[in-house]
Amino acid sequence: MQVKNEMYRNALDWVTEAGEIIKERIHQTLDIKLKSSHSDLVTAVDREIEAYFVNNIRQHYPLHNILGEENVGNTLSDSPYLWIIDPIDGTSNFINRKKDFAISVAFCCDDQGVFGIVYDVMAGKLYHAIKGEGAFLNENRLDSINRSSVLENELVAVNTPWKDVEEIRQWPQLYRLAARVRGVRVYGATTMELCDLATGSLGGFAQYFVNAWDYAAVRVILEEIGGKFSDLQGNEIGMIYCGGVAAASICVHEQMIQLLNAGPE
């Protein structure tokens, strides 16, 4: 327990320090490179921030595994301990909007989330949770999101592949969901959407594909306040799962899964 709390405190310090580095870099000329497409980008700041975390983890916990989006120092061993890092979730927002992006850090043991930290850098919002001890926004405890609600009354983040019409047509179930809810919101950063689920600003989240670093930290936060995560078929998922994801309160999640798997009307 003492070691877990020490790691948690260290990670909180590292995240806030990384946020200060980003604030210094954000108005400088950015070195931007394309990854898979013109909208899938990485900057030198992404890699700098990930390297900052990797160096700190290696210094303090050299036997731990690391999974980071930019693969700056990913390691895999038989250790049960794993850090999952997204140095800047929402890189396009970081480049174009100078806001609406976040640092995301999760720590896991044996494929179970131990703690998660998400930092909305420019808004100064630090979401964090350690399993079994509640979830917080800065110093304020977050309320449970488990409440009765009708899907039609909710705003939901629904993310589909927008670049290719033929690929979009492969996801009719997400369009059924979008048509049923009160409204759809898309932020360009998975962590930001899921954090709004944690505060009640959104009622649900569904995305055709996510990587572990997109959701791992905020998953710990949401599950601490009653949130439910699964794949789009409603199956349980591990902490390093990649694929379609649905998340909401238990009540709304059940309605989402039923609709997503109901077949064409």
From TrEMBL:
Listed cofactors: Mg(2+)
E.C. designation(s): 3.1.3.25
Lineage: superkingdom: Bacteria
Keyword list, A-Z: Hydrolase, Magnesium, Metal-binding
GO molecular function terms attached to this record: inositol monophosphate 1-phosphatase activity; metal ion binding
Substrates-to-products reaction catalysed: a myo-inositol phosphate + H2O = myo-inositol + phosphate
Matching InterPro entries: Inositol_monoP_metal-BS (IPR020583), Inositol_monophosphatase-like (IPR000760), Inositol_monophosphatase_CS (IPR020550)
Binding positions for Mg(2+) per the UniProt entry: E69, D86, I88, D89, D214
Keyword Ribonucleoprotein included in the entry's annotation: no
GO BP annotation list: inositol metabolic process; phosphatidylinositol phosphate biosynthetic process; signal transduction
UniProt cross-references to PANTHER family, sorted A to Z: INOSITOL MONOPHOSPHATASE, INOSITOL-1-MONOPHOSPHATASE-RELATED
The protein's name in its UniProt record: inositol-phosphate phosphatase
